[in-house]
Structure formats: structure tokens, C-alpha cells
Known about the structure:
By secondary structure, the protein is of the alpha/beta class. It has two domains: about 5-65, CATH 2.40.240.20; about 75-235, SPOUT methyltransferase, trefoil knot domain (Alpha/beta knot), CATH 3.40.1280. The protein contains seven helices and twelve strands. It has helices spanning about 20-25, 85-95, 120-130, 145-150, 175, 195-205, 220-235; strands at about 5, 15, 35-40, 45-55, 60-65, 75-80, 100-105, 140, 145, 160, 185-190, 210. Helix 2 (about 85-95) packs parallel to helix 3 and helix 2 packs parallel to helix 7. It is elongated and about 65 Å long.
Amino acid sequence: MRRFFVEKADKPILKLTGDERKHLAEVLRARQGDRIVVCPNDGNDYIYEIVSFDKTSVTLEFIEQYVNPTEPDLFLCVYIALLKGDKTELEVQKLTELGVRKIVPFVCDRTVKNTEKTERLLRTAHEASKQCGRAVIPEISEVKNFQEVISELSKYDSSVFAYEGAYNAGLRLGDVIHGDEKSIALVIGPEGGFSDEEVTAALSAGIKSVTLGKRILRAETAAIAGAAVIMQLCGEWK
Length: 238
Ligand code: SAM
């Protein structure tokens, strides 16, 4: 069943309007009697049946609701340095598929791109959530700077930054993540990596640096692989 995100799942009748109406009525050409899943971003799936169409809305009748089985218990937030081209969007799409709950784009010493339209990233997260069967669209934060990133990391049960220079120190994700955390933050640098000053600032703030292995990964690979390993370590890969 196709899924549609709304602000509120009204009962017993819901009027679907705007872009979601257009998608259902004009793109998918749904018919009276078809059933769809409606998600008000609360972790539940609400099943509705199409009653009728008019020019501005589709009238839906509530059938049943249940907890969406795909949402992880873990609140994983990934901080991603802005990347060139469409790479940041690619990260958002894949992190959404992996069940990440929040994505924070940021700029730092070596980011080449210094602005990003967060509405575009939110649209990508919305489309990816629909495609992969989630009931929650990950929150996309406004773009932050590195100092702001560091100062908010203490609110997570665990927070780590991926640093290719950490290989010799030998700290791996599995050494830092215990698996019973409720919230985790993972920080990934830009194409050119973190500057020495940023590494020092993060370590002084008590953020652990972790290696993602012997090979230097592209930033987007590091974000996707790092999130996948954390999900596995926390028992969310099932
Ligand atoms: N500074 C590096 C260079 O130019 O050789 C490359 C930076 S890497 C392409 C981009 C980001 O991915 C890094 O800032 C880091 O967060 C993450 N990363 C890539 N490979 C990694 C590894 N093996 N261990 C830890 N982090 C890694």
C-alpha cells in the first residue's frame, strides 16, 4: 500500500489535500475503494479507504491503525558536513532508509560548499521515507557550524566522530557503542576531512574519535557505513 504523510490523521474522515492529494489522484490515479497508509509522523500507520475525489481533496475513511514495525527504538542522529554536488542528498536518502531519526548538516574548516537548501533535503527524506515504508520522516536541522555541533553532542547517550587519523589509536565503533544506548550521535567530516584544530576541539570536549577501518572512505560512504554499523551494534538490523 502506498503511504502518505499528513499533519493529523483525522477520524473517521480525512481530507487529503495539497501535494499528497496530487500524487494520489493525478500521479498514481488511485480509485474509489483503494486503500492507502496515512502517516502523521507519530510512528503509527493508519489505513484509510478512498471514498471520493474532488478538485482540491480526496476524501478518505479510517479503517484501522497499528504501530509501524520498521521504526528503530534507537534515536540515531548523524551530523554530516556539507558535500559538493548532490552528495549531501545522497547521504540523506540512504540515512533515511537506514532508520536514522535526525540529520544535521554542518559547515566546518574544510567544507567546500557552505550553504544548502534544507527544504530540498527534507523533500529527499520525505520521498525516501515513503519508498522504504517508514512512518517517520527524519528531522532535518538547519545548517550548523562545527562549534554548534560540538556543543550539542553531550545530550546523546554516546557521541562519536569518525576520524581517519584514529586508526592507529585503535578505537572502533564497537569499542565505544555498548548497544543499549537510547540515543547516539555520529559526526562525519567533509571531503577534505577535519582540520587539526577541529580534531583537538572535539577531543577536548570529550567526544571520542573512531576509525571506520584501514581504508579512507568517501564522506558519503563513511556516513552510510557508520550508521549501518551502529544500527547493527544496537540490535536494530533485524
Ligand atoms: N582527510 C582525508 C583525506 O583527504 O585524505 C579524507 C577525509 S574522508 C574522505 C571524509 C570523512 O569521512 C572524514 O572526515 C571522516 O569523518 C570519514 N572517514 C572516511 N574514512 C574514514 C576512516 N577510515 N575512519 C574514520 N573516518 C573516516
